[in-house]
Design a protein that fits this description.
Protein name: HIT-like protein
Shape: extended
Strand content: 15-25%
Helix content: 25-40%
GO molecular function: catalytic activity
Order of helices and strands: HHEEEHEEHEE
Radius of gyration: 22 Å
Distance between the termini: 66 Å
Strand order of the largest sheet: 1-2-3-5-4
CATH superfamily of one domain: HIT-like
Organism: Tilletiopsis washingtonensis
InterPro entries: HINT, Histidine_triad_CS, Histidine_triad_HIT, HIT-like, HIT-like_sf
Number of helices: 4
Low-confidence stretches: 17-27
CATH architecture of one domain: 2-Layer Sandwich
CATH class of one domain: Alpha Beta
């Protein structure tokens, strides 16, 4: 009787552990994963098997939209190349559909680069006036040519698509 109770308890614990793991895995997914799954509503503008585009809920301009891959990756270098192909064509379509003559396509990677959601995404931000849309200061420098030539890159920069992008052609 005691052995049977232990087996039953072990089975219950295993099932409970599986459910807790699934819940934690779901809770750890990005808000964009939840939008893709239909768990959070969005104002969809475009959707296909690989990409979803929708209006930004914190826009900095009218018609500010986001284009995201359905494959989850936090940063661009983590996204497999086969999931990149549709993102910019969709951003281009949104830019044309927005009617804006000027716009920004913006993609950030990491908190220091102002990424707020850990899921690759491109912003399409119409620039309809000097006070609306993306407003940036560009702290350009004017280094001497010799200084620019001193900048080197790790890797051979052959852009071999089979190579790990983190190991080819990165700044030192």
């Amino acid at each position: 009787m005691e052995a049977a109770a232990c087996r039953k308890l072990a089975l219950v614990a295993a099932v409970l552990c599986t459910h807790v793991y699934s819940w934690l895995k779901l809770a750890a997914r990005s808000i964009f994963c939840k939008i893709i799954a239909g768990q959070i509503p969005s104002m969809k503008l475009y959707e296909d098997d690989e990409v979803l585009a929708f209006l930004d809920i914190g826009p900095i301009a009218k018609r500010h939209a986001l284009v995201i891959p359905k494959y989850h990756a936090a940063k661009l270098h983590e996204l497999p190349d086969e999931h990149l192909g549709r993102l910019l064509p969709v951003a281009k379509r949104l830019a044309l559909a927005s009617g804006a003559d000027e716009y920004n396509i913006l993609q950030n990677n990491g908190r220091g680069a102002h990424q707020q959601v850990d899921h690759v995404h491109f912003h399409m931000i119409p620039k309809t006036s000097p006070k609306e849309g993306l407003i940036i200061e560009w702290p350009a420098t004017q280094p001497e040519r010799e200084e620019l030539q001193k900048v080197s890159w790790r890797g051979d920069c052959t852009w071999d698509t089979s190579a790990d992008p983190r190991r080819s052609c990165t700044a030192r």
